[in-house]
Amino acid sequence: NNRTIVKILLEDKRTELNKDLSNQILIYSVMNNDVKMAHMILKKDQVDVNLIDSDGKSLLLKAFERNNFDIFKLLLQDKRTNPDRDFSNQILNYSVMKNDAVITSII
Fold first, then answer.
1. Which of 27, 49, 52, 57 is most buried by a 10 A CB count?
2. d(Cα 57, Cα 35) in Å, to the nearest integer?
3. Alpha carbon of 18 to those of 11, 14, 24, 32, 70: distances in Å?
4. Which pTM does this prediction carry?
């Protein structure tokens, strides 16, 4: 499967992991709710956790919108992640409106 291939590539010292490839792997893991793959790629320095897509959405927002709370939490815990203050308030307001204790506890 894809995770096995990514793991092999990430562990092979001959693999040149550039920022574009790292970001594509992270985007894939967010879009497919692949927590293990996200965890693997977040260990790499080359990945941009604050990436904004062509729709103007961050990976954090995409994970949130897709209810990928495990990846959402992973991204928030990453010290490189810079959540916008308005975005944090938006998520908090949403979680209160929906009475969603999972999101509220993460924030």
1. 49
2. 19
3. 14, 12, 10, 21, 25
4. 0.73
